Amino acid sequence: MASKKNKKNRTKSTPVVITHLVQDDLGFWGKTKWHYIIIFLTAFLLYANTISHEYTQDDAIVIYDNMYTTDGIQGIPGLLTKDTFFGFFKEEGKANLVSGGRYRPFTPVMFAIGWEIFGRSPMMGHLMNILWYGILGIILYKMLHVMLIPKRPTQSNVMLVLLATLIFVAHPIHTEVVANIKGRDEIMALLGSLLAMFWVFKNPVKNKLLSSLLIGLVFFLALMSKENTITFLAVIPLALFLFRDIALSGIAKKMIPVVTATIAFMICRTAVLGFDLGGKPMELMNNPYLKVQGNGYVDFTAGEKLSTIFYTLGKYVELLIAPIQLTHDYYPYHIPIMDLGDWQVWLSVIVYLTLAFFAIFRYRKKSIPTFCIVYFFITLSIVSNLVFPIGTNMSERFMFMPSVGFSLLLSILLVKYVFKKYGMVPFATLCIVILSLYSVKTVTRNTVWKNDFTLFQTDVETSINSAKIQNAAGGSLITKSESEPNQQVKIQMVDKAITHLNKAIAIHPNYRNAYLLLGNAYFYKGNYQRAVESYNEVLRLNPGNRDGTNNLAVALREQGKYYGEKENDLNKALLYLKQSYDVNPNDNETIRLLGVTYGMGRQHAKALPYFKKLVEVSPNEVSFVKNLSLAYRNTGDNENADFYQRKALQLDPNAFN
Q: Is the CB of residue 143 less than 8 Å from the CB of residue 199?
């Protein structure tokens, strides 16, 4: 009995002893704590230069111009019960400009809490992005480790997992996500997805109910960060099928918390946005598969749309392998209208078909490359424009989740074809070169994300044929010029803005916002006639547009003022001032100028109604009361003239001095 007992005890303790010895034998490769430190420090150091950056790009939508976020903790109910864009647009309907609407409240809630604690602090926003990115790197490492190394680790498989994680962390295509505070939605979506997947594999606690609740909670929060988390409904079963000897019924049981969390999210989303998968926006900046014809839009042909989509899918592969020319803007027509006769389209088709055939024919071997390819396809599908329109051709942030598959596949190729064939020195050298090139590109690309001005002025040189970036570059120059003390430099900036805006209109002839900004640029230059023409274009494209209407009235007023004061042409002055009054009859300055101009033309009876209107609106404004008194005097109505003269003197004894 004793020998059996001792044998039993030895059997129980044997795996622990063996694992311990293997860990010791691996040396550095067995010290996972050091791996965590390396991963986190790599993430932190690569993005440390963003800590001093300002808000930029879409930060306005979810942070500093969002009425709910800037209300701090009190704004959280609004974030949870409205479309994510509603707090920015502040109008029903506008929040749903993109197909299907957006319900991503988790990271805006994080921003609201940050605003409550730190106020308007982009520094804290950037710092938190870096910290969460570092944590994501660790979770990715742990997930790959538990998925790919279920038993005894070896040097090559630990090397594989660490290298894949470092490639992911260092990849420059992620700069849009980490360097832009708004990109935290991508970070939290992937972090929650990987953590749920890790716990599905690991079963971290003995209490199955608690384990299921943890899995469901983190997956639910990931879904509340960004909807593309839903692709892990396919990714997790795929990984279980390939890397664990579990029956389909067992996989289904493990997926119960994930599926439950998805159902809960869909209920919440439907309650807020309704059951609307989204129509088709008919504006080029929200639907890249439109062409401008006359004053309207027409759809791409089926061939053009499919060709353009496959071209962008090929661009994704290119950017993953060689992320040399990065930009935040892939709007029309930086991505041109492609057709089935273009070789780049067919090259992309061949690449994707080759990957698909490889995955299909090797799925029985349950290899890691098969997982990488199928994972890439699954997570790419939701942002590919093949399933449903996403509002733009492509974006680097859309590769954040799929790039895990690329990073793992690249590390497999390096370990299998370099390390195992040529040894450590060539392998280490090549890895250092790749990681160094990626790191240098990441650090330098970060500098572009300093603020809107730097971002737009840099990327407009890359996305030359994008109407959106040409418009943004022009607008940022106009804004920057307002604080420029040197008048000559100011004019040069406005002239450059006009060039960009005209380019935007040439690309997109119905671009309302470009016409609006072009009108502003001409207005700042004092070219009121061209400003009026631009604002009229805004109103032609969008009758009743508030900004176009207001700006047109001001431009017409200033044009009238110019002819009256500079050219002494009262007839032209009255022509433009009356047009301004017709557009906006409640502008006090326009009303005053009409009264003054009629008065200068000795048409005092016509001047009188305008001065009376001013006094009705502002009865205690001395200059208005004084002008009304003089107008009555000039029409021979001395009784009213004396009355308003006394009133003016009561308001200011020196009114007539």
A: no
Please determine, looking at this structure, whether the domain spanning 599-657 carries the CATH number 1.20.1260.10.
Answer: no
Gap between the Cα atoms of 77 and 66, Å rounded? 13
Among 608, 603, 609, 549, residue whose Cα is nearest residue 580:
549
Start-to-end CA distance of the chain, whole Å, equals 121
Token pair listed for 233: 């409904």
Residue with tokens 């007839």: 571
**In whole angstroms, what is the distance from residue 454 CA to residue 477 CA?**
10
DSSP per-residue string spanning 550-613: HHHHHHHHHHHHHHHHTS--HHHHHHHHHHHHHH-TT-HHHHHHHHHHHHHTT-HHHHHHHHHH
* Whether 342 contacts 295, CB under 8 Å: no
Taking the alpha carbons of 470, 471, 474, 477 in that order, is the dihedral positive or negative?
negative
> Could you read off the pLDDT of 259-300 as tens digits, one per residue?
999 999 999 999 998 876 556 777 888 889 998 887 788 999
Indicate the average pLDDT of the chain. 91
Q: 392, 400, 273, 373: which is closest to 331 by C-alpha?
A: 392
pTM of structure: 0.90
CA atoms within 13 A on the CB side of 99: 20
SS3 for 298? strand
For residue 98, pLDDT over 90 is answered with no
Closest among 55, 110, 66 to 89, alpha carbons compared: 66
**What percentage of residues in the chain have a pLDDT greater than 70?**
94
Residue 530's alpha-carbon distances to 145, 381, 407, 522, 523, in angstroms, are 64, 46, 53, 6, 8
Judge whether 466-585 and 599-657 match in fold: yes
Nearest to 362 by CA among 412, 304, 317: 412
Residue whose pair of structure tokens reads 């090559």 in the numeric block: 156
Q: Indicate the residue type of 128.
A: M
The residue with tokens 């997790």 is: 236
Per-domain residue ranges for the chain?
1-27, 290-435, 466-585, 599-657
Q: Which residues pair with 297 in a beta bridge?
A: 292
Half-sphere exposure of 497 (CA within 13 A, CB side): 29
Phi, psi of 207, deg, nearest 5: -75, 105
Two tokens at 443? 């650090």
Joined together, the tokens standing for residue 527 give 């070219």
Q: Residue 502 corresponds to which tokens in the numbers above? A: 């005209």
Q: Give the C-alpha separation, 339 to 304, whole Å.
A: 5
Look at residue 3 and tell me whether its pLDDT is greater than 70. no
Instruction: Give the pLDDT confidence score for residue 275 in this predicted structure.
Output: 74
623-629-634-640 Cα dihedral, nearest 10 degrees: 160
Kindly report the CATH class assigned to 466-585.
mainly alpha
In contact, 612 and 591? CB cutoff 8 Å: no
